[in-house]
Amino acid sequence: MQRDCNSENLEYAGFWVRFAAYVLDHMIIFFGLIGVRLVLALASFVLGLLEINILNTNVLFQYSLKDVALYICQVLYFIICTYETGTTFGKRVFHLKVVSAKEERLGLFDIVYRETIGRFLCHVSLGFGYLLAGLDQQKCGLHDRLSDTRVVYAKKIKEIHIENENTGFLL
Question: How does it sit in the membrane (predicted)?
Fold first, then answer.
């Protein structure tokens, strides 16, 4: 089922709200990875007693197997959340959702590509790939363009202005 991404009912999420959601996601990942680090530390200790040092051995340039495992856990958070619900916990707080520019349902390949290659290129470009979301008409970062996704508001939040009769301030 095709969906027109340029339809008037979509409101694209801008740079700052996406940045706030990303920071919140990384706070969640930080605390989640504490548990993974504890498990890896325990495994490293046990393997150290057996004189096996596989977790701290470089397997990819200067990155150890432990570093690779932590990266995979981080990427899996974004891939699984986005594939299952179209959003992460950080995006959900701000009512954001990742959608395909062409299809109703996001494809797993598109999400994996967006969250790995796309984000890697955004980081390599010193964040410029992310800043494109503030310059583009559809608020697309480099990773969105590469995977043909958009970040939109899942629902509109209504503002209610109530004037306090004593102070005249809006609440």
Answer: Multi-pass membrane protein
